[in-house]
Design a protein that fits this description.
312 residues, mainly alpha, Heme Oxygenase, Chain A, 2 domains, 15 helices, 63% helix, 0% strand, Haem_Oase-like_multi-hlx, Iron-containing redox enzyme
């Protein structure tokens, strides 16, 4: 169980520990909270984790507890409102996908390739472990909500990412091997206390999109945004690992990546449900927004010569 980061996450952790419901969730705390701050993002993560692997010693009945779902809904609306305020929106899917093909220089993978030190690479692995432990899972929630060719394409992509029948080749396992190769803990969410809100937000957004059928278009947008940029950044990270002479297990995760059928998935989806264009654009833009906030935080800390984690 992680440490609390404010009154909202503290109340949820207290409820999980004591079994108390109702008044422990004070709704007035949510209205005044920072949607992208430490307290809200940890609180959301604590709610969402019940739909994944669960939390040790937390009663599984909490997953559908009405009081917890009420407070989670308030947090989600706060988070969504902030995201919508921070992006331009629109329904021009072609334009927003074209932007994904333009790689801005100066990102985290560029820094690690050209100047990164081993401690910075290990920090990056720690940050990403929170995401990589469940990177393919939320996208799987889209499958029962799709039909026809787009459903088949998503299943094909997921089949590959889950290891194509070989557990040792699944991306989640490959990342666990990477962590061990870097002499870090490969335990599930082992570093939850270490990562800041800007990293938690990049995980929470895909849980939010995945759990709500009405946001299925945004979930596909998230999928497109993450997959469109993974191959090129993976190449830079492989170069960085070679320069730093890391163990082979660290590089295997990135060399195993395959570019997905983004155009086929999106094109088929919009043929069947053209009204999802606006949500798809929002999913792409919101994902890029949060990824940029994370990159700005990490690079800002490293350039100042300090750790980007919450504690060393």
């Amino acid at each position: 169980m992680p440490r609390s980061r404010g009154p909202i996450s503290r109340s949820i952790l207290s409820a999980y520990a004591t079994g108390q419901r109702g008044d422990v969730f004070r709704t007035e705390r949510v209205a005044a909270a920072d949607p992208l701050g430490e307290d809200v993002q940890l609180a959301l993560h604590l709610c969402y984790e019940l739909h994944y692997q669960g939390l040790e010693e937390v009663d599984e009945e909490w997953e559908w507890d009405p009081d917890l779902l009420h407070i989670r809904g308030m947090l989600e609306r706060l988070f969504l409102k902030k995201l919508r305020e921070c992006v331009s929106g629109g329904d021009d899917v072609t334009a927003v996908l074209d932007v994904l093909l333009i790689e801005p220089a100066g990102g985290v993978s560029h820094h690690l390739r050209d100047h990164g030190e081993w401690w910075q690479m290990r920090e990056y692995f720690v940050h990403q472990s929170i995401y990589r432990h469940k990177e393919t899972d939320p996208h799987a929630w889209a499958i029962p909500r799709l039909r026809g060719k787009v459903k088949a394409a998503m299943v094909a992509v997921q089949f590959d990412q889950f290891g194509a029948g070989h557990p040792d080749r699944a991306r989640i396992q490959l990342y666990a091997d990477l962590m061990e190769g870097a002499r870090l803990s490969s335990g599930y969410l082992a570093y939850l206390d270490e990562v800041p809100a800007c990293m938690l937000a990049t995980v929470n957004i895909m849980s939010l999109f995945g759990l709500h059928r009405k946001l299925r278009g945004a979930l596909i947008g998230h999928f497109a945004a993450t997959e469109a940029t993974t191959a090129s950044s993976a190449g830079r990270l492989v170069q960085a690992l070679q320069r730093l002479e890391s163990s082979p297990e660290c590089g295997l995760y990135f060399t195993a990546h395959k570019q997905v059928m983004r155009d086929e998935i999106i094109g088929e989806l919009l043929k069947r449900e053209p009204g999802l264009a606006r949500d798809l654009v929002f999913g792409v833009q919101a994902t890029e927004l949060l990824e940029q906030r994370f990159a700005d935080h990490v690079l800002g800390c490293w350039r100042a010569g300090r750790t980007s984690l919450r504690s060393a």
